[in-house]
Amino acid sequence: MKRAYSEARIQFMSNLRSARRLWPNRLHSIQIKSLETLSTRYSLSVPAGDLLFLDGRWYVTHAGLLGLARRNRCSGVRVQIVREFCDSTLGRWVFKATVYKSPRSRGFVGYGDADPSNVSSLVHGAEMRVAETRAVNRALRKAYGVGLCSVEELGWAPRSSTPAPPDQHKASANGIDGNHNGQPRLRDRLCLLIRQYQLDAGLVKAYAADYCGTATLREASRDMVEAFINDLAERAAKDRPGLICQLNSYAKSQEVAS
To answer: How are the residues of the chain apportioned to helix, strand and coil, as percentages rounded to the nearest 5?
Structure first.
């Protein structure tokens, strides 16, 4: 019992350190308390990409839910397409997922739908996969009592209602740091993609700089960075293995340079 408490405490402290590094000056006492609960009750990991912090709220990821199921020895997940609600010409898809916690489990059911109106424009054309992922996420959340919404269930990252300070608006003209017309920061969008598709951040930055034609990503214009993020999201959704292969080519380039 004491050992289990100690391990849970270590998990929480590791998550807190990572969260403060990833989202500096954004965590308040209520978010830290929520993080403690998520760490100790579900063993979700911030460094592993199980959790994301967007506009003051925690969101669980698909990878985090799958890890939770694996740790609890989930017996299996069955996914079925609900054809009567689907229309491929409109890009509308609906799936039903059933999670079996044990061989004798009657199953926990979750439905997921996706069409161009409720997914990010970055993943248009991949609505079928989004719908399947949403169904699995909802079934897993029911099975293991996770009241936290998953990031894949969002149409897009939530927008903050807090007005940006004047210097932040000024920074939005160029680079990756600022907000633009109320949209989430480009840095946040890029981090979300890296975690969602489990990409190597260093290789993505090298690829981004090459894509934008600059020595570093920070030197690129906002328009070029945004174009890169849109292209990265589309490729990750449609052909992640191909994208990983291209990213690995930058690892070889870095080895030669060093």
So the answer is: 55, 15, 35
H-type alpha helices, 58-200: 62-71, 127-143, 166-171, 186-196
DSSP 158: P
Q: Report the helix count and the strand count for the chain, using DSSP H and E.
A: 9, 5
Give me the residue label for tokens 């006492």. 29
**DSSP collapsed to 3 states, 25-64:** CCCCHHHHHHHHHHHHHHCCCCCCCCEEEECCEEEECHHH
**Which pTM does this prediction carry?**
0.62
SS3 164: coil
Question: Which region, left, alpha or beta, applies to residue 34 given φ > 0 means left and ψ of -120 to 50 means alpha?
Answer: alpha
Residue ranges per structural domain of the chain: 160-253
What amino acid occupies position 31? Q
Amino acid at 45: S
Q: Which residue has 């830290």 as its token pair?
A: 32
**Are the C-beta atoms of 75 and 156 separated by less than 8 Å?**
no
Q: Can you give the C-alpha Rg of the chain in angstroms? A: 20
Kind and range of the H or E element at 252?
Answer: helix 240-257
pLDDT per position in the chain (258 positions), as tens? Answer: 555 567 888 999 999 999 999 998 889 999 999 999 999 999 999 999 999 998 889 999 999 999 999 999 999 999 999 999 999 999 999 999 999 999 999 999 999 999 988 887 777 888 999 999 999 999 999 999 999 999 999 875 444 333 444 444 443 445 565 544 444 577 778 888 888 888 888 889 888 888 888 888 888 888 888 888 888 888 888 888 888 888 888 875 555 554
Q: Report the distance separating Cα 38 and Cα 44, nearest Å.
A: 6
